[in-house]
Design the sequence.
């Protein structure tokens, strides 16, 4: 069984990758001109496993070692994972721009140091996104992910960085209306 | 409260007296940029969100440098989208073919970024500008869209790492060798989420071009930013060039660092990073004999005038090995013109190298020198990931311009000394 079972709780199969998976391997430079989500998704993680994009099912999980998504800031790499329908990426650690991009576009990520060591390819996982908890249904082991700071969780809750920016712009416009006497840009 | 230079710049941008590592802040952005890979996605997000105007038309640069001059119909469409957005919003800093250069060489050269700035760019090598004593870091396209609308970006204040280089580098050892050595020592996540501050007499003795090479590759150690406090060299570079008022900040003596590395520059040899990570480093001399098919000299790491002069110094009077293609890519139009006027192109052409228009081109496997399966390149660029320059079965070795030029002549990895060059430190 794959797919969501209750709100914020996903079930799927684990695809396990190693350390330092860079964004060139997630989405090679040759595909950076693509704009169609399905086409971008079809190349996801091609540099590591050319069969991955064709085999992974929506709701499956990527489990990785340290520094996942290092290298280029290319957001289509992050987007290719979301477009493929991956439920969450669970890693020992993430490279910083990848993590920012994931938060910015709303791809669930969990920092859980023990998962990469314990989970084997094909294990059935249940992931509680709200609690940041990863349960390996195949082995019975439960992993608790690290909690993100409140500020970052709020951005994710607002739906990413764009709704957050929209609110900022609206707030400023309202302030300008109230403040007739001053220049609108300082 | 004692602060590092990075903390001081972030505190200023957040309108605060002080900040500490780990704090989340909303910071005012002095400048932001996107390129032909990242800006179209940002523009889509900007328009989808219904933003009507950018926060400041003179504080955003859109730089089509990766696939230009446009390599095919799809990439031509990406640039067209940037061009139209720039016109619509009256952006001051849109540069097209004939004016454009590799973004991280172009922005400092034009004086668009400078000391004290907080800069975000939708390109991971935005950290280059730290060489000017600025806080500069890479973000994704959606973050750029938000920054273009609001002029603000959220940051977690990073811990700082201090990298102190004492003494004086040996013959032919450049900024590129110092940064490859650093990444080899700490690994590709050795500075994850952290600020990398470079100091010491060996750094002070470096040109701006070499300093840009160092800060450019901070991201290859996972760093949030690389930074070198301004000195007389920086001030001389900025004077008459930077279009705004510089703000000079310096780390306090009592500032806190998560770690302090101290290395003797004279102990650092000419370096090479082997496939497939920039941290997989070894002394170039020990790799002598590794055969290569292509050499690339260029990019935001090593496509500046000093790099071309270094390459020409080695190539003068030599021919590129018959089994090697040497591709030289001056990073900007100004670098191109100066290199031409200095006669460097005669050296390259006599050596049977090709000189390209400014572009990121082959560095990311875009165009202008893609590798076939089984081919091996030595390149002055910054990444040697699997398939970075072409086929997933190709290989990239990274080095500075001296090793690149010597290797092009030898047909295999070589130091200048190994092809008979001699020079005192």
Sequence:
């Amino acid at each position: 069984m794959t797919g969501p079972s209750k709100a914020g709780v996903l079930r799927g199969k684990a695809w396990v990758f190693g350390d330092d998976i860079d964004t060139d391997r997630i989405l090679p430079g040759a595909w950076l001109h693509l704009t169609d989500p399905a086409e971008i998704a079809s190349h996801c993680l091609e540099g590591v496993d050319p069969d991955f994009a064709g085999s992974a099912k929506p709701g499956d999980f990527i489990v990785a070692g340290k520094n996942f998504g290092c290298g280029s800031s290319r957001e289509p790499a992050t987007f290719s994972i979301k477009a493929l329908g991956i439920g969450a990426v669970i890693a020992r650690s993430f490279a910083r721009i990848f993590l920012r991009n994931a938060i910015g576009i709303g791809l669930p990520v969990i920092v859980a140091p023990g998962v990469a060591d314990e989970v084997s390819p094909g294990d059935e996982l249940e992931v509680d996104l709200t609690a940041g908890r990863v349960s390996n249904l195949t082995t019975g082991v439960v992993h608790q992910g690290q909690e993100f700071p409140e500020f970052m969780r709020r951005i994710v809750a607002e739906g990413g960085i764009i709704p957050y920016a929209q609110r900022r712009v609206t707030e400023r416009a309202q302030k300008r209306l109230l403040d007739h006497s001053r220049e609108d840009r300082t | 409260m004692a602060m590092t230079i990075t903390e001081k710049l972030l505190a200023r941008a957040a309108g605060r007296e002080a900040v500490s590592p780990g704090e989340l802040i909303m910071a005012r952005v002095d400048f932001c940029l996107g390129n032909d890979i990242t800006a179209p996605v940002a523009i889509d997000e900007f328009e989808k969100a219904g933003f009507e105007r950018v926060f400041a038309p003179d504080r955003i640069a859109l730089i089509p440098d990766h696939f230009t001059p446009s390599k095919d119909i799809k990439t031509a469409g990406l640039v067209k989208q940037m061009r139209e957005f720039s016109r619509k919003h009256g952006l001051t800093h849109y540069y097209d073919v004939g004016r454009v250069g590799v973004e991280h060489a172009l922005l400092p050269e034009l004086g668009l970024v400078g000391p004290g700035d907080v800069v975000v760019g939708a390109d991971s090598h935005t950290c280059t500008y730290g060489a000017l004593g600025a806080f500069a870091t890479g973000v994704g396209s959606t973050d750029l869209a938000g920054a273009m609308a609001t002029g603000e970006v959220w940051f977690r204040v990073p811990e700082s790492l201090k990298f102190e280089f004492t003494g004086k580098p040996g013959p032919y050892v450049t900024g590129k060798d110092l940064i490859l050595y650093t990444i080899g020592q700490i690994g590709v996540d050795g500075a994850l989420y952290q600020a990398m501050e470079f100091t010491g007499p060996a750094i002070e003795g470096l040109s701006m071009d070499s300093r840009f090479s160092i800060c450019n590759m901070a991201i290859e150690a996972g760093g949030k930013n690389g930074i070198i406090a301004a000195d007389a060299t920086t001030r001389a570079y900025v004077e008459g060039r930077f279009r705004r008022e510089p703000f000079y900040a310096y780390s306090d003596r009592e500032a806190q660092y998560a770690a302090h590395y101290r290395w003797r520059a004279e102990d650092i040899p000419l370096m090479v990073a082997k496939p497939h990570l920039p941290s997989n480093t070894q002394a170039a001399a020990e790799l002598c004999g590794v055969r290569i098919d292509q050499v690339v000299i260029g990019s935001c790491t090593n496509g500046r005038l000093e790099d071309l002069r270094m390459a020409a110094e080695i190539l003068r009077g030599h021919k590129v090995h018959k089994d090697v293609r040497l591709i030289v890519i001056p990073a900007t139009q100004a670098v191109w013109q100066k290199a031409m006027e200095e006669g460097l192109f005669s050296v390259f052409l006599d050596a049977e190298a090709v000189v390209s228009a400014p572009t990121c081109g082959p560095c990311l496997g875009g165009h202008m020198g893609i590798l076939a399966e089984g081919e091996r390149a030595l390149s002055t660029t910054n990444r040697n990931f699997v398939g970075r320059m072409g086929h997933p079965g190709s290989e990239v070795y990274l080095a500075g311009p001296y090793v690149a030029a010597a290797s092009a002549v030898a047909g295999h990895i070589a130091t200048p000394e190994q092809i008979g060059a001699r020079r005192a430190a």
Q: What stands out?
A: The longest helix of chain B spans residues 73-88.
